[in-house]
Batch of 2 targets.
Target 1
Amino acid sequence: MAQRILVLHGPNLNLLGTREPQVYGRRTLAQIDAGLVELGTRLGVTIETFHSNHEGVLIDRIQSARTDGTEFVVINAGAYTHTSVAIRDALSGVALPCVEVHLSNVHQREAFRHHSYLSDIAVGVICGLGEFGYEAAVRFAAGR
Ligand code: CA2
């Protein structure tokens, strides 16, 4: 079982609950994070959440995960999903299992959202299930 799970949120996800509720839901990132930490307590695992709007900061956090006891990464890299070879390389570099999560169904949206630099190095990909996608990923990681 993964005992320590890192949940990473990429750019603009701090706007959750403030705009575009029809696409991304009504809950704020703080509310989602609090729910995940509570879920972790119920499952007996430690959940750490981390958000940044900055690619390099996300990469630094991923690199730290190699030595800080993290056993599994859940990542919604936001728009960096579709652009960032660097985040892909960081995840490959730390060699931790990860699940890629998207709130929206990226395949129902613009063509530029259909490609992900992360999907083929992830254990699995969840999209279109709203915030439940994070819960599903955490439950998967905790049981793995
Ligand atoms: O569906 C997802 O979770 C995305 O990762 C969200 C990213 C988008 O670039 C990806 O293609 C799919 C965008 C996050 C922006 O979040 C906002 C939340 C509220 C209001 C405005 C933006």
Target 2
Amino acid sequence: MSKTYAVAAPPVVTVPVRGSTAVFPVHRIYCVGRNYAAHAIEMGHDPNKEPPFFFQKNPDNLALDGTFPYPPKSSNVHHEIEMVVALGKGGKDIPADKAMDCVFGYGVGIDMTRRDLQDECKKLQRPWEIGKAFEHSAPMGDIVPASQIGHPTKGAVWLKINGEFKQQGDLNQMIWKVPEMISYLSGLFELFPGDLIMSGTPSGVGPVKRGDVLESFVEGVGPLTTKVV
Ligand code: MN
């Protein structure tokens, strides 16, 4: 007997794969917090005392059409340019030296953050969802298969607003490298094909406003243009 749903079932969220007609189905979105020392310091933390950590966004928070609708209930929405790691395989307790076998490809994403609401959450020791996991909070470009570009470990990561540099870093500044983040995460959660990991942001985060054009770039992965509407 075929299954019928009591309410409308949500669609599978998919991201285009560069050079392919196949699309990447998204399972979960994990995000690494404070994975670049200069960003940890600009947020008032000591990266030597506090290691990076994880939080999550929802698959349907992805914004894939080149626009970012300014969200409600905030007057201080920040950009955080990040390399996104797309998993083709999952598992539990994956050793770091086997972790790269899990990587399908890479993308460019922005961890958009309602900073005022996040700051309030931090102050009250509450979870971060209202600051991080809201509609359209994860603009992202196409996924580029590692079979085409290899595994980027160094290279420029930057974000410009209206042509002006705001964030500039290098992938080699990540505190947790990609194999370490996969290994660590797989000890806490079972990872699956379709999981995305936003790998953290370099320093220079700041506010956006309606009408801004955000150009994001990760060397070897590509550009992403996002208009704030
Ligand atoms: Mn982030």
